[in-house]
Design goal:
Elements (H helix, E strand, L loop, with lengths): L41 H31 L6 H30 L6 H34 L4 H4 L2 H24 L8 H8 L11 H38 L1 H11 L1 H40 L6 H25 L1 H12 L16
């Protein structure tokens, strides 16, 4: 998400209304209407660049490994992993297309890439953030059927359904983000205030009216997040009931006589996958909740929240894209084995795509 960079009451100052001095600097010093620039010392800017560059590289590298692993190894070609593959692509795009420009904006407190690209950057940022939670919502639905209705899972979650989920997760956020930004629906009803007191040359941020921020946050975060929490809570209750029933000797005997021990192992694996992806969902909510809480309350507080706070929360949200591959590495043995094969170049061997990364 894009944030306000300078004081909202002072950012729209004409450069010809102020005398230039060492204490007053502008993003574009010889352009009227330029944004004020906060000039941090080199001792702060360099560590910030190093830290943010490391986050970007980890995000790109980690999600690239996920994409290569699921794409290359045939054993990983299943409905849940297709959704994970698509979500990793979103995180990769966020790390490569959005975060580098956000880094320059955060450190320099100015936008040097033009007004049109600012709108494109803002649209892509909102689109990818919204698409992430759409993917997590559909993953929760997939896990619900896998754990709670395993006998009909393959008919409910076939490839056609999964690809439809992926298309919806990309298309709806893209339409929502680009229409809102390019048609300026976010400032509808407050255009005069925005252009007189907020907008300035060298700034790239999105201004929300009270109505716009509530509607957009509900679509992008709160409604899908609530749906996910409800589904995973139901999965937890059913998985706990199943675990208790497995302890019963009679239930074990009946289960094995009907479906065999292999089915019991499969059910256990499905519950573990649901737990792991539930943790991924939890990481997402922890990373993005502070930002969405602040961005919703800010208009109702007359935009008094410090811009540096919102900027920090944006990067805390970006960290979600960095953490996802780390969660896979910690909980999924197949990810660790795939990572080793990729690192040593074994994926280039003949028939390496048929390597068994885990026992069925």
């Amino acid at each position: 998400m894009i944030i306000k960079e300078t004081s909202r009451r002072e950012s729209k100052m004409k450069s010809d209304d102020l005398k230039f001095s060492e204490s007053v600097q502008f993003c574009y010093e010889f352009i009227n209407g330029s944004c004020l620039k906060i000039n941090w010392p080199t001792s702060i800017r360099i560590p910030m660049y190093i830290f943010m560059t490391c986050i970007i590289l980890m995000t790109v590298a980690g999600n690239l490994v996920v994409i290569i692993s699921i794409s290359h190894f045939k054993q990983l070609h299943n409905p849940t992993n297709y959704l994970i593959l698509s979500m990793a692509t979103i995180d990769l795009l966020l790390g490569s297309l959005v975060m580098p420009y956000s880094m320059v904006r955060s450190v320099e407190h100015c936008w040097y890439f033009g007004k049109l690209f600012c709108k494109v950057h803002t649209s892509i940022d909102i689109m990818l953030s919204t698409a992430s939670i759409f993917h997590l919502s559909f993953i929760s639905i997939d896990r619900y059927y896998a754990v709670c209705d395993p006998l009909r899972y393959k008919t409910k979650m076939n490839k056609c359904i999964i690809f439809s989920m992926i298309l919806v997760s990309w298309i709806i956020p893209a339409i929502f983000a680009f229409i809102m930004v390019f048609l300026e629906l976010n400032i509808k009803g407050a255009e005069e205030h925005f252009h007189n007191y907020i907008d300035c040359v060298g700034g790239c941020y999105i201004f929300f009216t009270k109505t716009a921020v509530v509607v957009s946050s509900m679509i992008s975060f709160y409604i899908p997040g609530f749906v996910m929490l409800c589904i995973y809570w139901k999965i937890y209750l059913i998985a706990r009931r199943q675990a208790r029933s497995i302890k019963d000797v009679t239930s074990q005997f009946q289960c094995q006589s009907r479906f065999g021990g292999k089915h019991q192992i499969s059910r256990s694996r499905e519950r573990k996958a649901a737990k792991t992806l539930g943790i991924v969902m939890g990481v997402f909510l922890i990373c993005w909740s502070p930002f969405f809480i602040c961005i919703v309350t800010d208009p109702f507080l007359s935009y008094t929240l410090p811009p540096i706070l919102i900027d920090a929360l944006v990067w805390f949200g970006y960290l979600n894209s960095t953490f996802n591959p780390l969660v896979y590495a910690f909980f999924y043995m197949w990810f660790r084995k795939a990572l080793k094969m990729i690192m040593v170049g074994k994926v280039f061997y003949p028939d390496s795509s048929r390597t068994r990364l885990f026992s069925e």
